From TrEMBL:
Residues 4-144 form the Phosphotyrosine protein phosphatase I domain. This is Protein-tyrosine-phosphatase. InterPro entries: Ptyr_pPase, Ptyr_pPase_sf. It comes from the Bacteria.
Length: 168
């Protein structure tokens, strides 16, 4: 089976989508190739430092992670996506570009770990909880039988997984 290309979308591409990209690439190299983007990243947007810290603490590479616009993946020559997953409610409600290849889509909502206040330890814990919740759902995805990942079934399968794991 050829690796499936998965694009995780969020508004700013600084926290949840970055966590999901890094996690999936770490969990299933060769089976999946994950990317992330934002519908409207801010000028000079960077991945959230606490998100990067939590990934590194979990032993997951942060090399090459950067915030980028989803326009990068709708442009000619961009990798063709098999599955696009929104991970924040704002991005789920936005009008997406027309994606080449008509990929399957799903919404897996997670609370924004960077939205809360509190001490640095409390903020770090919010990122850890989000990382864990994303990990649980990705475990289900990567352990699906190959036939569930066929293009004709991927739409249904991805949406079913949105109900399969609780969000933090």
């Amino acid at each position: 089976m050829t690796a499936l290309n998965v694009l995780f979308l969020c508004t700013h591409n600084s926290a949840r989508s970055i966590l999901a990209e890094a996690l999936l690439n770490d969990m299933a190299p060769g089976r999946f190739h994950a990317y992330s983007a934002g519908s409207s990243p801010r000028d000079n947007q960077q991945p959230n430092p606490l998100g990067l810290e939590v990934l590194r603490a979990a032993g997951i590479s942060t090399e090459g992670l950067r915030s980028k616009s989803w326009d990068e993946f709708a442009a000619p020559g961009a990798p063709v996506m098999d599955l696009i997953i929104t991970v924040c409610d704002n991005a789920a409600g936005e009008v997406c570009p027309i994606w080449p290849g008509h990929p399957a889509t799903a919404h897996w909502g997670y609370a924004d770990p960077s939205a809360g206040g509190g001490t640095d330890d409390e903020k770090r814990e919010a990122f850890r909880k989000t990382l864990h919740a994303i990990h649980q759902r990705l475990e289900l995805l990567i352990n699906l039988p190959a036939d569930k990942l066929e293009k004709t079934l991927l739409q249904h399968t991805a949406r079913e997984l949105s109900r399969a794991a609780a969000t933090p």
